[in-house]
Amino acid sequence: xVGIILCGGQSSRMGSDKGLLVNSEGQLWAQNAINKMAxxxxxxxLVVNRLQYASYASAFVGTPIMTDNEKLExxxxxxxxxxxxxxxxxxxxxxxxxxxxxMETSVLTELYNKYLETDAYDAFVFTNExxxxxxxxxxxxxxxxAIADMHKKGLLKRxxxxxxxxxxxxxxxxxxxxxxxxxxxxxAHAGLNxx
Length: 195
Fold this sequence. Notes:
By secondary structure, the protein is an alpha/beta fold. 30% of the residues lie in helices and 19% in strands. It has one domain (2-183): Alpha-Beta Complex (Spore Coat Polysaccharide Biosynthesis Protein SpsA, Chain A), CATH 3.90.550. The chain has helices at residues 29-38, 53-59, 77-87, 105-117, 141-152, 161-166, and strands spanning 2-6, 44-48, 65-67, 93-97, 123-128, 131-139, 170-174. A 7-stranded mixed sheet has the order 3-2-1-4-6-5-7, sandwiched between helices.
């Protein structure tokens, strides 16, 4: 199991790189995500796009950084996840987006414990009022391999995380009303309050 922090978005709505934003405690958002994931006692890597690499390599000395595989011709978070899979094809990944600054380790631990209970699923995904939360989820190598194969054969019609989930055997875990705040995805400066 490897934790991967997805930082490779365009941040067009935010206007600046979200992973390099500083929270109220003076910590970079990506570092905040790394710390919460590392509390599970698993190795953690960042996934960025090619244009971000130099900035992240400078800010995160000693942290493994993977770059998107541009040959995949996919955009969005799925590009980051499949790029990581192609570099480490036998690894299961615990995925967390860097723009969920309110996420807590206790929530990650809940999903990780569910994963440790069984190997019968391709993915372990939280649901929020029956809608999947694909950017805080565990994806197993066998499922990612199947998705990569579908993409290679042109069978993956939509390049979205939710579309990927539709093609996997998923263990869904419902979040509580109290946990909803942790899944706040901040895409604009208006959403920075509390982050």
